[in-house]
Amino acid sequence: MSVVVPAYDEAEVLPLFAQRLRPVLDDLGEPYEVLVVDDGSTDATPALLERLRREWPSLRVVRLRANSGHQAALTAGLARARGDWVASIDADLQDPPEVLGAMLQAARSQGVDVVYGVRTDRTTDSVFKRTTASLFYRLIRRLAGTSGPAQAGDFRLMSRATVDAVNTLPEANRVLRLVVPALGFPSTSVGYAREVRAAGRSKYPLARMLRLSVDGVTGFSIAPLRIATWFGLLGGVAAIALLLYAFVAFLRDETTPGWTSTFVVVAAVGAVQLLCLGLLGEYVGRMYTQLQGRPTYHVAYDSAAPPAADPQGRRQVTSSETPGSERTGR
After folding, report:
1. Its pTM surpasses 0.85
2. Given this model, what pLDDT does residue 326 score?
């Protein structure tokens, strides 16, 4: 079993996370690895991970050369995980590690490939976050037609077949909480109460949440593009109605010169045009990024693959350390 843990500036919470995760995995009685992906941390996270690795042989550290984002770090972890079962969990302890045993048991007893951790109690989150999260998942299910459970984030357990399928996908800027349900593999869910962050601060401020939402919508649905078509049709109907109104008013000699109505119409049409251009720009930008073929992340170090040395004792750079050698897990 592999447990993938993306971490960015989590020095405050990592000791607490290791204290809770290690007993859970040891009690499973099965071989495992904990693959922590250091997403370019700038605090003491790298040094702390190396110290934990000396005390915990099953801990594996993968370090990215620069901060690439939560989803990219998860992608890097899935690309390097070696277990028959692969779990993903954040280090902030909002998703309790104790649920992993129930996930593994559910996967084996029900013969499914994916077990989602579903938040049945989110009272520790703010009202704003609970409301926006509910609206986001409802919108995604309607636009993209995904069948994933509501209130399921990136806390999940996947079979090797599922991970291999995810790793073969060529798309960049993937949102895994939408990619995995879209595969349609047999799945079930395990409920849990979401806890407060054990230490540190959230790495998902409002701006990143909005970016994740935009990536999710534009990556899984063309429905926003159809908004431009509907706006165009509604604008045409409104223009015809205004034309008829103006013609009738002219015949009745009731025309009154004024600028208010003209200003309102021009402003409304301009706003619709800008909105449509923005939607088109999002999709064109995604295609442009995809055609560039730039790696989503660059692996700088993997504790499970130490670099070799040539006969002169000089350090050699392995393929795993070459920037661009891995592209979105392919």
Report:
1. no
2. 45
